[in-house]
Structure formats: C-alpha cells, structure tokens
Write a structure and sequence with these properties.
The protein has helices at residues 8-73, 76-81, 89-109, 133-145, 190-198, 232-238, 275-326, 340-360, 362-406, 410-427, 436-453, 465-468, 479-490, 524-536, 539-542, 553-565; strands at 114-121, 126-128, 151-158, 164-173, 180-189, 207-211, 217-219, 245-248, 255-261, 268-274, 433-435, 458-462, 472-474, 499-507, 510-517, 570-577, 580-588. By secondary structure, it is of the alpha+beta class. The two termini are 53 Å apart. 21% of the residues are buried.
Length: 595
C-alpha cells in the first residue's frame, strides 16, 4: 500500500503543535511544579530560622529568669519560711512581713516582667504577693507528680484580677537537710513572651504557638486552646527530629507546619502557614499566563494556517510551470510578487533565460576550461620555480662558505654558516610547530651575526635549553621579536645595540619568555594600542593581512600563536620606557601526539 506524502500545510501544523505547543505545555507544567516546590522549601527554611530565633530568644529570657531567681532559693528568709511550724502563727506573720518588705520590692517591683512571687512550703504555709489561694492545691498536685524538676514552666493561668501570666516553679532545697522543702512560684507577664513571638511575621494568617513538655499548648493565638493537648498527628511528627516540618490538611486548607524544640527549656515553637497564602500570587500569575498563552497559541495557529495556504498555492503554481519546462517549453514565465515567493519566481524566470544563454555559450565554456587548465599548469611551474630558487640561494651560500674556508677567512665562513642556517630554517613551512629549543637556536644564529656587526653587544641569556624542548611553538616566533628590538629599539634612534636579554619562567600553562632590550622604547599610547590589539582582537581580524597598527612583525607573530594555540598564548608588552622595552611571549607545553 502506497503511503500518501504529507502536504506542507499539514507538516506546518504538526510542527507547530509538536515543537511549540507540546514543549511549552511540558515546560509550563515543570515550571509550575518547581515553583511550588521552591516556594514551599523557601517558606520552610524561613520558618525554621524564625522558630530557631524565637526559641533562642525564649531560652535567653528564661535563662535570665533562672539567674534572677537563683539567689532567692538560698535566701535566709525563704529558708526560714519553708521550715516554720504551721501552727506557729507568729513566726508565719513575722516572716511574711519581712518577705513582703525585703524580697518582693527587689524582685517584683524592679522588674516589669515578674508579676507575682509566691513561696509554698511542703509543711503547709505559703506566701504570695498576689491573690493565690485558688491555685495552691493544683500546684501541690503538680509538684507531687513532677518532684524531680528544678525548673518547670507550668503554663498560662489567670490571676485573681484577670491578668494572664506564665507560671514557673523552682524547687527550694533545705540548706541543712538538702531535701526539697518547698517551691518558689514565679508568675511572669505574658506580654514579654508575646512580644518575642510577635517579632516574627508569618504572612496574613500564619500563627505561632508554644507547646510545653507535657504536649499541651502553653500559648496559642486562640486562648481556648491554652492547656489543651496537642493533636495526635502533631505529636507523632514532633517525635521525628530528622524532619522538623510537615504539611497538614488537604486542598485549599493545606498548611505547612514547622517546629523547633529547645534543648534548654523543652518548649516547642510551632508555626502554621496556609499554603494557599504562599501560592496566592503564583496561582494568579499562572492563570494569567495560561490565558495569555492560550490566546497567543490561537493567534499563532490562525496566522500560520493562513500563511501556509498562501505559500502552498504559490508553490503549487510554480510546480505546474516546472512540469511544462520539463516538457521543453522554455517560453513560459512565473508571475512576479513582492515577497520571498516573488524572489523565487524571479529566480525561476532568470533560470529559463540562463538556459537559453547556456546553450549558446557551451562552446565558449569548453574553451575557457582549456584556458583554465593551461593557467593551472603555469601556476604549478611557478610553484616549482619558487622552491628551486631558495635551494639555489642556499647552495650558493655553501659555495661562498667553501671559498671562505679555502681563503682562511673564518669570520666570513662563520657568518655564511649562520646565514645559511637562518635561510634553511626560514624556507620551511612557517606554520609547522617546533620546540622552543629549536627556535632559540635559530635566534642565536641571528644574534651571532649581529655580534659581528656590533662588537660591544652584550647578550644576557638565562634559559634551560633542555626544558625548552617541552615547549610547543611555531617557526619564526622569537627571532622576529629580537630583530624588531634591534631595528626599533636601537637603529631607529641611531643607537648602537648594547644589550639583549632573554629570560624564561614556567607555570601550569607553559612558559613566559621575556625579550629585553635597553633601547629608547615606545610612547605609552602606542604600547596601549599594541596591548589592546593583542588582548581583544578577534580571530577574523587576526586572519586579515594588515595589522591594526603600523608594523606587522609583532602582529604576525601574535596572530599565528593565538590562532594556533588559543588564549592566553601570544604577545604582550610588559613595559616600554626610555631605558628599554620588555616583550613577553607566552607559549604552551608540547602537546602529546596520539599514536
């Protein structure tokens, strides 16, 4: 069965849905899920930090309460009070008066957070600066159930005048028998605790609560929950220390619960933030984006469909004209339009005109091909001649050397050998890579010739030739820079060359070779121009024949190094002053060749 080929219109529709709509929907779903996870993670992390900070502040506060009340436990008046005989009313009233006069002003009236102070003796008597009788029996029962705690936060209670306080008790140890003789009850103003909690803001409806060690709410924004047991689900999660958060509820009522338990007080700080509140802006933005994207998809689909119809009609008409051309009718022409299809039709018409011309030009074309073949042969001959001439000159230098040896003119013989080596090194392919040791040896030949010209020339070389064999470079890299130093550092200023230095330092990337002269140097703006060009010129600019500044010697060396090895290899001018110039060449270590 023959499968029908899909039309361009159908292909455009499929491509539109396959490469635009479907990927967008997938990416949109992924983006939304990741955004939800990120917001939830950020909310959890922020709440964890807030809970830790609140717990820390509460630890500091209750620690301060411990320190402030510690002297009371051993105070003589307190010790006498817990030891008095319950039947001795005189001692009871006497000690109560002294406590009211000496202790209460110092502890209660000097601190706005301590609302009340009470002392309960296990023998029966008790004293309090506030209405306290209705709570004594419940506290005695609490002490009997928790007689080992030295410091315990009981919870929030209501005083006789309707003030809400957090009650804390401490055991009083008899300083003679070292057994528990009574309890110190401290009623703390609830405002101090709520001030610490209210420092943290959890959005519009988020709440923060405090759970005591007995899994009851010590504090909750809803007073109806004070002293109520924690929900079983919360309690089970609180026992999992490795995951200090969980989600509660489902759907729109889902919330993030984060908790932190203090090792000092045993209090657990709990935050609950509705997830809907965190996601409100994101959901609105998602819906707005989804509506906009759907509208954009519909508009794009209509536009592509209409555009594809205009293209397919024009292409169908052009296909019919091409069938007529296949049958030999070269007189037809396609209609002209002012768009890409019009350009295609014009190209079709030009093709038909060119066919007629090509038929007439067939013989001329054969003749041009023959002429091209002749030119190619001439070019090959010129290339061979170009290779013969350098070898001829090289052989001529050998003859001159032979005559110099016969004539026993050693300087001429030596200079001929150096020049011959330079010439032989130079006629090889300049793009071949060689070791830096070979390049330095070639440079020495040039230096030897210059020393014959300038007897006072000092050559200062500090190089390890064995290590230079590991460096990878191109032919004619160092010698042009040295020659440039002679010409522009000395000869342009009519100065005899007196010094030429070479230094090398190694790092992980390769070698830094410094070429040093003591000529006049270059102007600062020219140095800046060179270094800017070395650092920022693109590969396309390096491939151009001309340099971005006056000379081409340094630019040619830098371009070849940079194009061959890439950054950071190439040239830079370290400094150039009236006392001389230092040029740096960076080259890599020799590359390992694959076998």
């Amino acid at each position: 069965m023959r499968i029908k080929t899909m039309t361009i219109k159908l292909k455009l529709v499929l491509l539109f849905f396959g490469f635009f709509c479907l990927p967008f929907l997938i990416l949109g779903k992924f983006w939304y899920d990741r955004s939800m996870e990120t917001i939830e993670d950020n909310a959890i992390n922020n709440n964890q930090q807030l809970m830790r900070q609140i717990n820390y502040n509460l630890d500091v506060y209750f620690s301060d309460i411990k320190k402030a009340t510690l002297p009371l436990l051993a105070h003589p008046l307190v010790q006498q009070f817990v030891k008095i005989d319950p039947t001795n009313q005189y001692d009871y009233y006497d000690l109560s008066s002294r406590i009211r006069a000496d202790l209460i002003p110092n502890m209660v009236y000097n601190r706005d957070d301590i609302y009340g102070l009470s002392i309960i003796s296990l023998k029966g008597p008790y004293y309090s600066n506030i209405a306290f009788a209705d709570r004594v029996d419940s506290y005695r029962k609490e002490f009997a159930d928790n007689n080992k705690d030295n410091f315990r936060i009981l919870g929030i209670s209501m005083t006789g005048d309707g003030t809400e306080v957090i009650t804390v008790f401490r055991r009083i140890i008899d300083n003679e028998t070292y057994v528990t003789a009574g309890y110190l009850i401290i009623d703390l103003s609830l405002n101090r605790t709520t001030d610490i909690i209210n420092q943290a803001q959890l959005g519009k409806t988020g709440i923060i609560s405090i759970v005591n060690t007995d899994d009851r709410y010590l504090y909750h924004p809803d007073p109806q929950k004070w002293q109520q047991l924690l929900p079983a689900k919360y309690k089970n999660h609180f026992e999992n220390i490795s995951s200090p958060y969980f989600t509660n509820g489902t759907g729109a009522g889902k919330s993030i619960v984060v908790y932190n338990r203090s090792a000092s007080t045993g209090l657990t700080i709990v935050s609950e933030v509705p997830l809907q509140e965190l996601m409100e802006d994101l959901i609105y933005f998602r819906n707005l984006t989804l509506g906009f994207v759907l509208l954009l998809i519909v508009l794009a689909f209509v536009t592509i469909l209409s555009f594809s119809l205009s293209i397919t009609r024009a292409l169908s008409h052009l296909m019919n004209l091409m069938k007529k051309v296949e049958m030999g009718d070269l007189s037809i022409r396609a209609p002209l339009r002012k768009d890409e299809i019009g350009s295609l039709n014009r190209g079709f018409n030009l093709m038909l005109e060119d066919l007629n011309r090509l038929i007439k030009m067939m013989h001329t074309s054969h003749q041009k091909e023959k002429e091209m073949a002749i030119h190619q042969r001439e070019s090959k001959i010129q290339m061979l001649q170009a290779r013969i001439n350098p070898h001829f000159l090289y052989n001529t230098l050998g003859v001159i050397n032979a005559y110099a040896i016969i004539a026993k003119v050693k300087p001429i013989s030596q200079m001929t050998v150096w020049l011959s080596d330079i010439f032989r090194y130079s006629i090889d392919n300049p793009e071949d890579t060689v070791s830096l040791a070979e390049e330095i040896q070639h440079m020495f030949n040039y230096i030897h010739i210059q020393k014959e010209r300038y007897q006072s020339l000092e050559v200062d070389v500090d190089l390890d030739l064995n290590r230079l064999k590991e460096i990878h470079t191109l032919r004619l890299t160092v010698q042009p820079i040295v020659e440039n130093a002679f010409i522009h550092g000395y000869e342009d200023y009519s100065i005899k060359p007196t010094y030429m230095g070479l230094r090398a330092s190694f790092d992980d990337a390769g070698i830094k070779l410094l070429i040093i002269d003591k000529g006049r140097g270059m102007p600062p703006d020219l140095v800046e121009t060179y270094n800017q060009a070395f650092a920022f010129m693109s590969e396309e600019q390096m491939l151009q024949a001309s340099a971005p500044f006056g000379g081409i010697g340094m630019w040619n060396v830098h371009s070849r190094l940079r194009l061959e090895f890439g950054e950071p290899y190439g040239l830079s001018i370290v400094c150039s002053e009236n006392t001389g110039t230092i040029v740096e060449i960076r080259m890599p270590y020799r590359k390992e060749r694959s076998v």
